[in-house]
Amino acid sequence: MNSENFALSEKMVPATYVRRAGQARRGHELLIRQLLEQGKCPAKGWSEATVELFLNELAVMDSNNFLGNCGVGEREGRVASAIVARRHYRLIHGLGRSGDVAAVQPKAAGSSLLNKLTNSLALDVLKMAGVRSVESCFVVPMATGMSLTLCFLTLRQRRPEARYIIWPRVDQKSCFKAMLTAGFVPVVVENAPEGDELRTDVEAVERQIRRLGAESVLCVHSTTSCFAPRAPDRLEELAVLCAKYDVPHIVNNAYGVQSSKCMHLIQEGARVGRVDAFVQSLDKNFLVPVGGAIVAGFDRAFVEEISGTYPGRASASPSLDLLVTLLTLGADGYRKLLADRKEVFALLTEELKKLACAHGERLLHTPHNPISLAVSLDGLGARRGDAVTRLGAMLFTRQVSGARVVPLDKEQTIGGHTFRGFMSHSESYPCPYLNAAAAVGITGEDVALCVKRLDKCLKTLRKEANGGQSCSPPLS
Length: 476
Ligand SMILES: *Cc1c(COP(=O)(O)O)cnc(C)c1O
Prior knowledge:
Low-confidence stretches: 469-476
Structural class: alpha/beta
Bound molecules: pyridoxal-5'-phosphate
CATH superfamily of the largest domain: Type I PLP-dependent aspartate aminotransferase-like (Major domain)
Number of helices: 15
Strand order of the largest sheet: 1-9-8-7-6-2-3
Number of domains: 3
Oligomer: single chain
């Protein structure tokens, strides 16, 4: 309601009440004003009432909600179902204009504002999480793998001669496929063992750049967040190499925003060398549904080139989800989530160490991995391989999700490339193991339950290995 309507209301409700209501309304509007002025994540989270008021204001700015609109175009923001309209807060026009997702849409001032604001808040959060010198970013309504593909395709226009992408091995299919789908030949660089950890073989990366010739290399594609015992890549050293040979550097930071260590690596890489873009998942870092990613970089023009490569318009849903989430949590709320995660990671480390010890196993020493842990599975008897596979199935049945058992000697062919020792980031890791991660949103209760169930499963398996009940009935 505007002041005119408030004044009219005084005819029906006592003026003092209406004035107080007017002041209350200004409280909400003040928050919206600060958001528009600063383009930053508010320190304190907003109430649902403020968020919904704001979303409604945005929606009535779009032509599909104009009272007098008559649409005679082929895309007029019409929806048949009221549920669909509500699910999107009547923001139906999506993002961008044909040809550029970042462009403002004349039919949809509200959706366009939403897009710009979300990108501005995302940039603020990336800075807050540790990449202080990030210059520009945008939300893409595609998950991480496809967003990496978009980055590679953008680089192709700059380096038409390049065929190869140099990639320190990470056993995750989407990031490998991201390179194949973009039409490049991945050059897989095996990791170097260092104690229990697997770390970037920087010299091997340099040898590959020299062997192939810098101009035929599209980029180095490195990774921060990954399953232990692999460590985040040696980003600073890779960034220095990339600067030395004038080769672009794209970083897969899939779930790295939640870790100050991963973000620090990117910041330092960009400071001492070359990082062209880094890509992070929305769902893995911000507790929203799967479907979006943030592409960020240190050169505004290059980031604009990437958004300009996206053909056509795009869904606004991932941006809307991120905006609502950041407004609801506030910067303080997000920081608290990150601090809690760190604490639970320490708890998970301690609990897994104890559990491993009790079963004659070891928590692998992976000090550089800030999110994922690995417990050896060495002592499961002669038929160790079968037992490891069975442990995976048992954990699944017992609703322990996300725990990942990694056997030895698994082979996997993706797009013509065969990975030996697939899942373990290595052709010959010395032991099978189990992964668990402390990702944003995890609670102490998750840890307690997981460790309890894991303990039971390991006891059962050991009994079997020692010739106890060799064929226990499946757990219900
Ligand atoms: C999650 C993840 C990806 C991308 O997966 P999407 O399903 O495309 O989001 C890529 N690399 C790593 C290391 C990941 O953890």
